[in-house]
From TrEMBL:
<dbReference type="GO" id="GO:0004644">
    <property type="term" value="F:phosphoribosylglycinamide formyltransferase activity"/>
</dbReference>
<feature type="site" description="Raises pKa of active site His">
    <location>
        <position position="144"/>
    </location>
</feature>
<feature type="binding site">
    <location>
        <begin position="89"/>
        <end position="92"/>
    </location>
    <ligand>
        <name>(6R)-10-formyltetrahydrofolate</name>
    </ligand>
</feature>
<comment type="pathway">
    <text>Purine metabolism; IMP biosynthesis via de novo pathway; N(2)-formyl-N(1)-(5-phospho-D-ribosyl)glycinamide from N(1)-(5-phospho-D-ribosyl)glycinamide (10-formyl THF route): step 1/1.</text>
</comment>
<keyword id="KW-0808">Transferase</keyword>
<feature type="binding site">
    <location>
        <position position="64"/>
    </location>
    <ligand>
        <name>(6R)-10-formyltetrahydrofolate</name>
    </ligand>
</feature>
<feature type="active site" description="Proton donor">
    <location>
        <position position="108"/>
    </location>
</feature>
<feature type="binding site">
    <location>
        <begin position="12"/>
        <end position="14"/>
    </location>
    <ligand>
        <name>N(1)-(5-phospho-beta-D-ribosyl)glycinamide</name>
    </ligand>
</feature>
<dbReference type="InterPro" id="IPR002376">
    <property type="entry name" value="Formyl_transf_N"/>
</dbReference>
<dbReference type="GO" id="GO:0005829">
    <property type="term" value="C:cytosol"/>
</dbReference>
<dbReference type="Pfam" id="PF00551">
    <property type="entry name" value="Formyl_trans_N"/>
</dbReference>
<feature type="binding site">
    <location>
        <position position="106"/>
    </location>
    <ligand>
        <name>(6R)-10-formyltetrahydrofolate</name>
    </ligand>
</feature>
<protein>
    <recommendedName>
        <fullName>Phosphoribosylglycinamide formyltransferase</fullName>
        <ecNumber>2.1.2.2</ecNumber>
    </recommendedName>
</protein>
<dbReference type="InterPro" id="IPR036477">
    <property type="entry name" value="Formyl_transf_N_sf"/>
</dbReference>
<comment type="similarity">
    <text>Belongs to the GART family.</text>
</comment>
<feature type="domain" description="Formyl transferase N-terminal">
    <location>
        <begin position="3"/>
        <end position="181"/>
    </location>
</feature>
<keyword id="KW-0658">Purine biosynthesis</keyword>
Length: 197
């Protein structure tokens, strides 16, 4: 059984999908804790499933490295097999990535390497493309530059704005994340064998 710690910053819709999947006795992964860099609304989902939560507010620390050290300590006390950044909107310091790699994955609302960074949906619309996508990647020390584990194309529809397009991308992100965790748990994806970027 794969033990997961999920890190969020907002509403936690991807987290909710993982919690629902893991509630099925046949699903080979369990969320053991949910953490955030603020008091996130998504903690409600963890509470609903009886999952412990922790918060490491960035503003409580002198710098990113001190914050990262505390975040890593909080994560490691749960001894997870896999850490999932699920709408976690803060870059983690290199030593956190190095301590957890390659068992640190992230979802991104674009078909990487297209439109990396915090505004993937907005950037796709601004570029005028007719399709974008969703990706699940291994986290490295770049910005959305790690090896891609899974991705799927999503059309940009006439009249789409950032909200409507992001809503459709989130549906696919959730499906990809649940499947990717399943594939890691059952050995279809071997993170130790993934090429490092």
């Amino acid at each position: 059984m794969l033990k997961l710690v999920v890190l969020i910053s907002g509403g936690g819709s991807n987290l909710r999908s993982l919690l629902e999947a893991a509630h099925d006795a046949e699903y080979p992964a369990r969320v053991v804790a949910v953490g955030a860099d603020r008091d996130a609304d998504g903690f409600e989902h963890a509470d609903a499933f009886g999952i412990p939560t922790f918060s490491v507010p960035f503003s409580s620390f002198a710098d990113r490295e001190a914050w990262g050290d505390e975040l890593l300590a909080q994560v490691q006390q749960w001894q997870p097999d896999l850490v999932v950044l699920s709408g976690f909107m803060r870059l983690v310091p290199p030593r956190v990535v190095e301590a957890l790699a390659p068992n640190l994955i992230n979802t991104h609302p674009a078909y990487l390497p297209e439109f990396p960074g915090a505004h993937g949906v907005r950037d796709a619309l601004a570029a005028g493309v007719d399709r974008t996508g969703a990706s699940v990647i291994v986290v490295d020390n770049g910005v959305d530059s790690g090896p891609v584990l899974a991705q799927r194309r999503i059309p940009v529809l006439p009249g789409d704005d950032e909200s409507s397009l992001h809503d459709r991308i989130k549906i696919v992100e959730r499906e990809l994340l649940v499947q990717t965790v399943l594939d890691i748990a059952n050995g279809t994806i071997d993170l130790e064998q993934e090429p490092t970027a």
